[in-house]
Amino acid sequence: MSDQTQLDNTPNVWRRLIVIPAIASMLVGILASGDSHDREPVSAVVTAPQPMSAEEIAAAQETDSNEVGKTVEVSMDEMLDLAEDALEATVANVDDYTARMIKQEQDRSGVLQPASECFMKVATRHPGGKPGSPLKVYMRFDSPDDVRGREVIWVENENDGKLLVREAGAIGAMMTVPLPPDGFLAMRGQRYPITEIGLTRLLEKLITRGSVDREDPSVRVFKTEGHPYDGRSLTHLRIQRSKPSGREGDFSLAELVLDRERNLVVSFRSFDWPDEETGERTLIESYEYHDLQLNVGLTDHDFDPANPEYTFVESKASR
Questions:
Q1: What percent of the chain has pLDDT over 90?
Q2: pTM score, whole prediction
Q3: 317, pLDDT greater than 60
Q4: What is the pLDDT of residues 222-239, one digit of tens each?
Q5: Is 37 contained in some domain?
Q6: Which residues pair with 289 in a beta bridge?
Q7: Residue 154 lies in a domain
Q8: pLDDT per residue over 284-298, tens digit each?
Q9: Is residue 36 part of a domain?
Q10: How many Å apart are CA 13 and CA 27, to the nearest integer?
Q11: First vs last Cα of the chain: how many Å apart?
Q12: What's the burial of 89, exposed, middle or buried (CB within 10 Å: 0-12/13-18/19+)?
């Protein structure tokens, strides 16, 4: 090889030296943040509630009061009515929102992942109450420490359907990686793909699950008004099973928090059946929406990786 050829190839050599380690580091970061096979399961940050005792159930059956702090047993039909009203209101009235989401869930292999917290922006599929628009999501992770600073953008039907990831850390910040939302890397350590995210989809899944249990006598529902949440007094609903259903997504206890004033479900969590040895219930999934701001006027700029408030690096998929 001539000296001139070596000089001509020098930029390509340096490019490989920089880009290949960056890609490797980013992929390691993504895998490490959700590796369900090489890491021991962690304990839930959410303490599992105890099932209501026979005395508590009897007391709940004897009252029909909506007094703050009083727990009353309600039918699955009543709970579904509340959820369906909330879904109808969400579709009709919520065009977009920002929130601080705290999430913890078992991945698809049943390993409980660390709790994560992110700031999110969401433009719904139903602005103006008319379904059919693309879902748009921006997320910036604040915890755990190993993903602090990670940014994700996913816009339905754009970027070849891929989500754009700017990984945390100095090397990860050097480039943006496009990933299929349901692919191996994007789903590592996740229970659901990003396509399932948001207030609307949460309600839809709750209604689907609840409808199956409508006639199941082993399922009981208890409602408590005055549940404290973000400094406000909301409605707490507990769904309690007396025996396993044998269906996919089965749980022993589930809880949701309903904001009746805004007609939104702002929290949902469910727990597995007690461990035979310890008697403890493991968290299955928990989603909490805090500091929720509705209809803030998000635009395409909020879901553009070129937004100067973000730290994405230009990629082929985002051009």
A1: 60
A2: 0.80
A3: no
A4: 999 999 999 999 999 999
A5: no
A6: 101
A7: yes
A8: 999 999 999 999 999
A9: no
A10: 21
A11: 36
A12: middle
Task: Give the whole-angstrom CA distance, residue 1 versus residue 3.
Answer: 7
Average pLDDT, the chain: 83
Q: Is residue 111 part of a domain?
A: yes
Q: Residue 302's domain is classified under what CATH number?
A: 2.50.20.10
Structure tokens at 184: 């191996």
Contacts of residue 319, defined as CB under 8 A and 6 or more positions apart, other chains included, come to: none
Bridge partners of residue 164, in order along the sequence: 153, 178
Which pLDDT band, with edges at 50, 70 and 90, does 249 fall under? Answer: confident
Report the domain count for the chain.
1
Which residues constitute the domain of residue 166? 54-318
Tell me the pLDDT band of 184, cut-offs 50, 70 and 90. confident
The whole-number pLDDT of residue 175 equals 82
Local confidence band at 246 (pLDDT 50, 70, 90 cut-offs) = confident
Residues ≥6 apart with Cβ < 8 Å to 68: 225, 226, 233
- On whether the CB atoms of residues 49 and 253 are closer than 8 A, the answer is yes
